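Class, look over these structure tokens:
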Amino acid sequence: MRKTQITIDVELDENHIPETLTWNAQDGGVEKEDTKAVMISVWDEKAMEALRIDLWTKEMPVDQMKMFIHQIIISLGNTYQRATGEEDVAQWMEQMAEEFAIKSAIKM
């Protein structure tokens, strides 16, 4: 069995707020790549719930955070469709993403 690693390094300020975020994925050719936001979700099978880590730096602009969330909603719909085959629900999620884009003023 082969193992690989994806890591995220977080540098905190004196108030424990992320100053810098970098990520590494050697198999993908990524090393110490800067980012302004990270969202990680894992499934806890025992508790039957999603566990999340959401981090963003003080430098993450609000307009970019809105775009980040919008793209995540679209990705969730794509993942849902691939995992379940339920095209109608995936399309509904895509419509929800578009409504989000309009309400958050990233699309007119």
